[in-house]
């Protein structure tokens, strides 16, 4: 008869590390080992590869490689050895009266005896007498029995004691992904021997958890995109309302100069326009409601997968995996296209012949056009520029000129003519149109477009202790306002300048250290590097300035440019090894660029860096007047040499336009240079005669206005104007 002392002596111990097995596995000779220990033994075994097996470290009995391992290398054999469940808890710490187990054999005989021992192979509890009988049977003589105190409540729970559906007396140890079944070793070696996707429960659980984690990230990303679309929807509705007001004002301004005889026609036109806008606004609000419902559905799917991911039961996780997969697929199949959030644009195009013959034509047309976001942004910028112009505009002349332009109408809403337009003469005869004599044409004058200094902005603001020094500049279009952002090195601050309600305004934000360079990260967000600080500031422009975050980095950085909304390219400074690092918004270095794969020198000490439209990096050095262009992987595209930059002592600013034209500030010679054809051709773009004085940072906005930071604390803005060509 077995005694508790004998059972304690027979408690399984790994015969390699002589400790309680961790993630225990069993060999056919019934010796048990840690999975990691037996894996190292198999890898170091000389006969493993030759004889497709290995010797037991305890008894040296030859063990063939697991059948389920197939043709996999010996490093993976340990994953397919049978698992033995052992408790990690100490004796007598987890047992209590409410957790007391009864003897399984006595329970079948109708007795109620407390169990003291646990059979790890049968997963049943026995009293001392039944345990002795259990050990005397030849079939169960080799079974390992341990005290109940050594078994954790998790091992005793019925949830993790799942048995095979084909062999009721066998516990499941494997999972067949092809058949989506939990199976015992017998099923794995016989019924599912041809299935390729058979693994241990632990291995399958790890794969499932990893897959769920990936899907949760995708759902979160999708939810974030929908949230952004929802915010964009609110902005679009406001834009639609502004567009409505603007269109109505144009119509009213036109009709106020017409005779009272067309008032009925005007009312009819306004009614149709109101209906069109109301219909479009209703459609956008319905799309917004769909977005909210989709977000709630995605959040529910995310919560369900998180609950399944955090469950302690591996069998429960695998049992509910298919159901969760269906919910996940259903959530991602629903898609709301961003185009559904873009409203139509309506412009009023009057029939100017009404000014001469009021009764023979309809009032006009309202043009409905659903444009892309880029066209809408350009239209808003053009309108802002026109509104800020100092020249007065005559409404009627503007309407006439707009009517003569080439129409790009995609859809037109026709309005019915007023009954008054069919008015006849006093004798019943129709009113005949009066012939119009065209005005004499003026002689043709040839004109050319040139850049002229349009405006000068001072970067000195109230509270500055020193004369400002702006060496880096960026221009953003924020909430309908053109906003200029500069980094003031001398006053440890970031500044923005804009026009609001016809008045020049500015905003100033103090920095932790001297700001070096500023770059655009998103539509309303910029990033700023700082001297002698391993930080990058993320600032919101609205058009006032407010700090959003500080990115902590492992190096000191100087020049910066944004590759995407989640990746930055930064150049090192004050470091032993010079490099350009690609980092994320957490400050982690994704990869570094030090030299070209062909061992060509790309840069010596980066001073300015920008991103070209093709995605390449353009870098100018601090002391060497060369410009390098290379890919984000570090492959050289081109590099200027002494032939192109013979009279260039150094660059003080760098900018690349959408058509790959590179502009260089030459502070020493008071000029702006233009580089074309991959650095082969360099010409003069602006000179001191045109108003350039010690240029530093420069920027060109979408209206082709050139902004130049100068050493005299001024920003010179150059604009293209038409002048009479010299004869």
Relevant terms:
727 residues, alpha+beta, Herpes Virus-1, Neuraminidase, 4-stranded antiparallel beta sheet, 13 helices, 37 strands
Describe, in plain words, how this protein is organized in 3D.
- With 727 residues, the protein is of the alpha+beta class.
- It folds into 3 domains: 4-156, Zinc/RING finger domain, C3HC4 (zinc finger) (Herpes Virus-1), CATH 3.30.40; 204-413, no CATH class; 450-724, TolB, C-terminal domain (Neuraminidase, 6 Propeller).
- The chain is 26% helix and 28% strand.
- It contains 13 helices and 37 strands.
- It has a 4-stranded antiparallel sheet, with no helix packed on it. A 4-stranded antiparallel sheet has the order 15-16-17-18, with no helix packed on it. A 4-stranded antiparallel sheet has the order 19-20-21-22, with no helix packed on it.
- A hairpin with a 5-residue loop joins strand 27 (606-611) and strand 28.
- Helix 8 runs antiparallel to helix 9 and helix 9 packs antiparallel against helix 11 (321-333).
- It is elongated.
- The chain starts with a helix and ends with a strand.
- The model is unreliable at 1-10, 87-98, 389-396 and 406-436 (pLDDT under 50).
Main sheet, how many strands, which sense, barrel? 4 strands, antiparallel
- At the fold tier of CATH, the topology name of the largest domain is Neuraminidase
For the record, the count of structural domains works out to 3
**Termini gap:** 123 Å
Query: Taking strands numbered 1, 2, ... along the chain, how are they ordered across the largest sheet?
Result: 14-37-36-35
CATH superfamily of the largest domain: TolB, C-terminal domain
């Amino acid at each position: 008869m077995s005694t508790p002392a004998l059972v304690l002596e027979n408690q399984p111990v790994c015969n390699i590390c002589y400790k309680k097995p961790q993630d225990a596995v069993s060999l056919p000779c019934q010796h048990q080992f840690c999975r990691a220990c037996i894996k190292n033994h198999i890898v170091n075994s000389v006969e493993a590869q030759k004889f497709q097996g290995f010797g037991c470290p305890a008894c040296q009995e030859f063990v063939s490689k697991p059948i389920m391992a197939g043709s996999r290398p010996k490093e993976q054999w340990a994953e397919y050895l049978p698992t033995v469940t052992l408790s990690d808890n100490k004796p007598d710490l987890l047992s209590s009266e409410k957790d007391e187990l009864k003897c399984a054999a006595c329970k079948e005989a109708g007795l109620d005896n407390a169990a003291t021992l646990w059979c790890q192979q049968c997963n049943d509890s026995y009293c001392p007498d039944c345990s002795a009988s259990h050990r005397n049977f030849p079939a169960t003589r080799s079974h390992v029995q341990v005290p109940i105190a050594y078994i954790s409540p998790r091992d005793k729970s019925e949830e993790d004691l799942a048995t095979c559906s084909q062999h009721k007396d066998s516990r499941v140890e494997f999972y067949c992904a092809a058949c989506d079944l939990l199976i015992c070793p017998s099923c794995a070696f016989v019924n599912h021997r041809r299935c390729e996707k058979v693994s241990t429960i632990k291995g399958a659980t790890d794969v499932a958890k990893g897959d769920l984690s990936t899907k949760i990230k995708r759902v979160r990303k999708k939810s974030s995109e929908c949230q952004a679309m929802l915010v964009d929807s609110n902005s679009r509705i406001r834009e639609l309302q502004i567009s409505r007001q603007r269109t109505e004002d144009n119509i009213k301004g036109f009709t106020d100069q017409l005779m009272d005889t067309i008032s009925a026609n005007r009312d009819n036109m306004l009614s149709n326009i109101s209906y069109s806008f109301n219909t479009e606004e209703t459609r956008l609000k319905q799309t917004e409601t769909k977005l909210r419902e989709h977000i709630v559905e995605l959040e529910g799917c995310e919560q369900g997968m998180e609950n399944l991911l955090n469950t302690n039961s591996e069998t429960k996780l695998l049992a509910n995996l298919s159901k969760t997969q269906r919910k996940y697929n259903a959530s991602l199949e629903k898609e709301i296209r961003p185009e559904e959030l873009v409203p139509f644009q309506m412009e009023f195009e009057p029939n100017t012949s009404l000014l001469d013959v009021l009764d023979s034509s309809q009032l006009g047309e309202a043009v409905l056009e659903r444009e892309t976001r880029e066209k809408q942004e350009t239209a808003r910028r053009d309108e802002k520029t026109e509104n800020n112009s100092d020249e007065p505009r005559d409404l009627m002349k503007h309407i006439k000129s707009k009517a003569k332009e080439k129409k790009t109408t995609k859809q037109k809403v026709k309005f019915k003519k007023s009954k008054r337009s069919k008015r006849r003469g006093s004798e019943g005869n129709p009113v005949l149109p009066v012939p119009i004599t065209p005005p004499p044409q003026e002689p043709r004058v040839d004109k050319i477009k040139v850049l002229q200094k349009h405006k000068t902005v001072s970067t000195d603001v109230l509270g500055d202790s020193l004369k400002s020094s702006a060496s880096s500049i960026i221009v953003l279009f924020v909430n309908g306002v053109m906003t200029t952002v500069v980094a003031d090195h001398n006053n440890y601050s970031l500044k923005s300048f804009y026009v609001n309600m016809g008045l020049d305004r500015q905003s100033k934000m103090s920095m932790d250290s001297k700001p070096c360079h500023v770059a655009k990260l998103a539509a309303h967000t910029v990033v700023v590097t700082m001297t002698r600080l391993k930080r990058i500031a993320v600032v919101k422009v609205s058009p006032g300035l407010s700090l959003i975050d500080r990115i902590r980095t492992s190096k000191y950085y100087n020049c910066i440019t944004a590759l995407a909304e989640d990746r930055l390219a930064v150049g090192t400074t004050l470091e032993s090894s010079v490099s350009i690092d690609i980092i994320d918004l957490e400050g982690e270095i994704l990869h570094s660029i030090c030299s070209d794969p062909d061992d060509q020198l790309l840069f010596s000490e980066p001073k300015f860096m920008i991103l070209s439209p093709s995605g390449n990096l353009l870098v100018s050095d601090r002391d060497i007047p060369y410009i390098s262009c290379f890919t984000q992987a570090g492959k050289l595209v081109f590099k200027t040499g002494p032939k192109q930059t013979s009279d260039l002592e150094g660059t003080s600013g760098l900018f690349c336009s959408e058509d790959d034209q590179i502009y260089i500030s030459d502070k020493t010679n008071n000029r702006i240079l233009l580089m074309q054809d991959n650095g082969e051709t360099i010409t003069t773009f602006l000179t001191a005669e045109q108003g350039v004085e010690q240029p530093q940072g420069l920027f060109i906005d979408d209206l082709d206005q050139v902004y130049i930071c100068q050493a005299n604390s001024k920003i010179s803005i150059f604009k293209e104007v038409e002048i009479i060509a010299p004869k």
